[in-house]
Amino acid sequence: MDIRAVRGMNDILPEEAVLWRFVEEEARRIFALYGFEELRPPLLERTELFLRGIGDETDVVEKQMYTFTDKGGDSVTLRPEATACVLRAVIEHGILNKDPVAKLYTIGPMFRYERPQKGRFRQFHQINAERLGEDGPLADAETLAMAYDIVRSVLGGEGLVMEVNSLGCKQCRPAFTEALKAFLAAREDLLCSDCRRRMVSNPLRVLDCKVPTCKEAVMDAPTLDATLCGGCREHHECVKEGLDALGVRYEQNVHLVRGLDYYTRTTFEIVSASLGSNSAVAGGGRYDDLLGLLGGPPVGGIGFAIGMERLVMLAPEGLAKKGEGCFVAAQNTHEARLEALRLMMELRGNGIPADSALGRSFKAQMRRADKGGHPVCVIVGEEELRTGTVSLRDMRTGSQETVPRADLVSRILSVLDKGKGEKA
User: Model pTM?
Assistant: First the structure.
């Protein structure tokens, strides 16, 4: 029997997980700097949440959700995105009753049934942030800057561009919608069947269609910036002033829309030149009406999602490496291997990672120590047992010294600290 992983749902192997963990830790570090707290919503939600929150005219709801009826007869869905899940939790647990401002993040898998392609899979992972209770444009600017900081901390700044736009609000968007409908009606023959339907029910979605003929058909479409009301225009200009103050480079993209219905005013994407046509690494925007739509208080928010697969794929080689601790090798006697066990427990008790392969021959252990990338190898043999010492080999230089058993921990810490200084 040849059992393989489901198409588009990939294993993350140990040598890859090192980099994944590095990306997660960088995100958590930056979230802490900005005062964000972690929320962990479940993978499975009631389908109604996404129908109401994302919008039933979106590709996500129409084509991509993993939805099924459970044994209790309820329609449930594997989460295709995180914002609706986070807001459901905020409402259900009264988080905004405790504090009128909530800054939350979540990291984990999402699920969408779509064609697997470069950096895009059916089970994929996102870093998400949601900032609720602050309607001002400077809160938008700071949130966009935080997204840029996370991406830049992994990829560096070269080749990254932040694109920004305003989608307007309920007051100014109707005028744009009517102008767009008239434009699309004249080009209906060029649109795919989905867009012919959407051009009446939700024309903004046509601008986000990925079908090549549709993309070409809307190249000269009206832009939202021409119909923004005074409040939205002022908000957008202040967002850009905030980005300038924060030192974030950006470009105005008047054609930028997002594929979910709930966005208002600020929208943005961070794109990488290394990804070709599907160049977005991160994206998001403001959603002033979504919390109320889901049954919560009429409070606005802004959020974003960063695609972890794409970050990992673009990360520089050697950015995160395993083997920061030491390897313990014992010569082929029972007493030496027992002593190696005692040594490892002492090292771990002092916060030093310690690995071994005591079930292998001494020669095989040393090969593993070399291949594992450990900077230090501790060697225990009959001579070391007799003299109350250990041999300490620096795997980076090949030099070896004899160290009194009682001084082992302090000496290893010194060697590891020296190695970190040399890397810096």
Answer: 0.84
